[in-house]
## 1
Amino acid sequence: MRSAIRSIPAEAGQDRAARALALAVRGLPGERADWGAAMSAELAGVRGARARWSFSLGCARTAAGMRVRAAVLARDRGATGLRASVMAAIAASVALALYGPLRYPGLRTGASGLAFAAFLAIMLAYGVAALSLSRGNAPAATIARRCGVAGGLAVGGGWLLIFLPVSKAFFFVPLAVALVAPIVAAALAGHIGRDAGVGRAAALWSGLVGGLLVFVAYVTVTYTGDGRPYDAQTVRDFHASGARDLVTYAVSDDLGGALTMLVIIPVVALALGSLTSAPASATRHAQRRR
Amino acid sequence: MKRSRRPSSQTLRVLGALMADPLEWRYGYELGVEVGLKSGSLYPILVRLADRELLEATWETGAPAGRPPRHLYRLTSSGREYASEHASETASAPLRRGLPQLRGAG
């Protein structure tokens, strides 16, 4: 976050609170853009570092609320099938998360409540991101979706090959696929769409699709096999954990891993995709100028 | 058809402050300090009031050099009617005053 704030071009006299607010209100939906400008201008009249940060962060929260609301209530949506698929995957993920404690009563602990709350927050973020990305039927949005979904299938497939109990002989191949796919998707989308934003949208689609694919498949396989295989390390960790039984421990461990991947996959995809979408877009612009 | 639901106590405080001098244009931060609301609570209220056409906003003219023009707010005629309808609740809404830390609010 700090680096993101530092990366904002500083205008004369702008401090970090102003930069943070500029970052938060950048690209607000058209009908809300004036409010972003109004909050930024108002900050210029606020004195004192503490008051400025308080004002800036409050406005950033307001801007985030505006984005969520715009994403949820937008009417100009495309990609009905993709949106429906993502929502179905989110519903399946929630159903799987609810089924776990029913099938394995040992999972019902105080910590599992917190984990479930975190999981719901992540699902909400996935839903809002998917709704936000599915706005518009412009060619750029379509390019981002197509490249993103293709990248997401590759990302998900790669991570699943790493996690599922199959041969680990070619471990580096699926890892490379999982890491390179969002880069390719973002670069391709940025190049075709001639806009780094299109590339970033494709990268985020890759992360969303890949994350949901991994979670649903991995948790399903975990339940089907009761968390098998129980290798020597799992058994040692189980004895050290004080958990009730090996099955509950193994399933709990896998669920924790799946939850972590729900966060890591889109974050990594977006980070890697953002690195490449801008140069790809710039290259296309340069080619067109020649 | 607009829904007419009871405004929150925070909204009532904002309405009360705006009704104190209904024709005067007010700055957002100044308003927030007066009613004791931080920006994260104040702006969503202002946005909602503006969406319901109860609040009008305009850009400041003649801002001093080096400072961007700020937004100014006041109630519309419907907003004044709405505030009057809830005047009794407005009067009883708790008011917290913050520490004014304004510069160049004129």
## 2
Amino acid sequence: MKSKNRLPFYLAFKYVQRGRKWTLLLTVFLVAVAFVNLLFISSLFNGIIKGTNEQIINTMTGNIYIAPKEGEEFIDNKTEAVNILRSVEGVAGVSAQFQLPARLEYNKISGNWQVLAINPDDEAQVTNISEKINAGHYLDESDEDGIILGEQISGGDGVEQNAFSFKGAEVGEKVNLIFNNQSQEFTIRGIFKTKFINADGRAYVTQKALEKMLPEIDDKTSTILVKIQNNQDEDAIISDIRDENINGNIYTWREVAGLMKSVSESFSSINIIMTFVGILIAAATIFIVIYVDIINKRKQIGILRAIGIRPYIIVFSYVILSAIYSVVGVILGTILFFAALVPYFIAYPFQIPIVDVSLILDSGDYVARAEMVMWVSVLSGLIPAVVVTRTKMIDAILGK
Amino acid sequence: MITGRNGSGKSTLLHQLALLDEYDSGEITIHDQKTSPLSERKRMELRLRELGYIFQEYALIGELSTLENVMLPAMMLGSNKEAKAKALELLEKVDLKDKYRRLPSELSGGEQQRVAIARSLINNPKIIFADEPTANLDTDSSKKVLETFKSLNEKESITVIMVTHEPDELAYASRQIKLADGRIV
């Protein structure tokens, strides 16, 4: 390569090697901060959205939710339906839930909460309630008078809906389940806390307990939840299930997420707006910092032109300098993000009454934001360098 | 040498002659070549190959060492190796070879101006333009710079066109052009 062709790289390297260290550090730091800000906004909202969706699936709906057909109160032939669903390829677990329109009573406090009768082992294959037991233990299949309560029902200090709860019911204490004017006493076996306020406002009893209370219910159920194996295509499995002629309406979890669907969609919209604003702020910051740095070198650029250095070489040297700022800034930003912010949010998650949010960064988002920072940096170097190389040479030299 | 009061147009004339500034009327001819029809690229080529510049405030690149400052214009025309060898030769001529690694900020004003002279010579120019090159220098440093110019003119037949305020420096001139209000008087 001719010396002339190497000259832009040579000049850029010298600017970095012997330029003002504070200017270099400050510029790189600001690029890094702008990049971290972009990553943070995106990953925080990704964390909220992904966390919310996972909470809905893992605590309330499964991936696929089967409800009675219009005009029917129950899904008939529950056992057969469950067995058919289990045989569909890609299905990880199936749980039938019977929703009891019941009232719970404890120490003269009573309220209407959703009480579900389940097969505990089947339920554990679909939802993660069994893993979220905060006190006591999960239900046993043969338990006929045990109940587990969500934290929003048992109540206690720090519980969001303590005012409407049992205000501190504990494991081993008794609650009455009032159903069809019958009252049955249950012992609290466990209290669970999923951190999802909707799921924590539910109570579970066993199928055995239900059969004892309502022997006539026979082989009926209110809903069937289906959990699919990781990385399986939800739509393909739904299509397979539809082919099996299950006596119920088949929905994806998104279709039954209700209010949470709006919440999740709102977060997605906020994410787009915040990312756009973040990009504008990052672009403006990077542009101003690099622009000022290069405009301050207009005299030097004028001298280079005067001694015969071609403008394209001068411009290219500053583009390379800006690219160096951006690459080092992106590397520094990445280190700051993964070495400081991510561990911090794992240790101290951002708490919302749906899920504990940690930062989730999609590799596509990372690459897109890194590219954006690099393009903005390169443009921030290119524009002022072109402007200065096009001004009257003598004005540039004399700093006019 | 071009002399005259402040505001008489000395520097403007020098900048125009050196093709650093544009002019509205008249013609500047260098080696029988009219410069007004030349494109910016041709003017740049002419500046690079035929002309050398020395500014009042040295105008060295702060991030480059003495050697690198001198060799920079030559890197536009040849290899690094050739540029380096020529730059070292010129630094020896201006008595700065032992300081070739120093940055401009580590040199005195007189030394920086001698580096600028070495840089102006790197592509074997026919004409050197110097805008008050001794204005910021002490007497000894000024004398060294002027002796260098005299030597370049006498031994290497390089034309030196210099703007000065100092009457003492006219002793080095073979021709004096005095300006007043933009006109030669």
